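BUG: 3D viewer hangs when loading the predicted structure for this chain

Environment: internal workstation, default settings.
Expected: structure renders.
Actual: progress bar stalls at 90%.

Input used:
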Amino acid sequence: MRWLLDAYVDSRTYTSLAYLLLALPLGVVGFTIVVTGLAAGAGLLITLAGIPVLVVTLLFAASFARLERRLAWTLLDAPMPRSISGPSPGGGVFWRRLRSLLTRPAAAGELWFALLALPLGVIGFTVAVTIVWLMVAGFAQPVLVSLGARTEIGSLTIDTVAESLLFVPISLMFWLVGPRLLLGWGTVIGRAVTGLLGHVESPDLERGVVDALARTGHADGFTILDDLRLRFGRGPFVGPVQVQATLLELEGQGMIRAERGARRTSYHLV
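Structure tokens produced before the viewer hung:
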């Protein structure tokens, strides 16, 4: 019982409700613009006018994903990396920076998220509104009936206060479990958003490893992993597999050297 009631004092319950209510209008905007941009860009490719349309669509998807990351991190407490790759800072050439932004591995995931935002938004909004409606309907129904309102549910017509009182136990039940359901569904959506958008790209991981080794001189994989988690935050986007793959990549590029001992492997910059 206390586990259910604790949801009332958990701020994430109310922030999850806010996120689920915002999900539908944001999903409509994101889905509409991306689908329209992809369709228009593909249709105009034969005239080359479709190229800038597609570029603008991808740029919008990146901005939309940035907004969703912020909302998911703020309202759902979803794990999100603190650093997201942007255009390459070097060179200062517009076309080079634009190509760097559009060719990121995360660009495809951001585009997919914009397309999935509408169905996710519809489901989340429906869940939130249904739970809130069921919490208040049973208590509002007797008041409405006493004011002369009639409610029809299929072939059943509710036009007396006695009949309307049948819905009170349903509302009481949802007052008990509704906040926990909102909190649970917010957690599910948060994990989905983390899975789609919570990625640290290889260049960021490589820079993080190089920076860690530059500060420490040499370190093993666990020390580097702890350093990366301090830099990007804890989450599925930074784990032993990603760190090991990054170390192997940097070793293959000749940027770091591994000293493999009997118990551990230590790395240092070349």
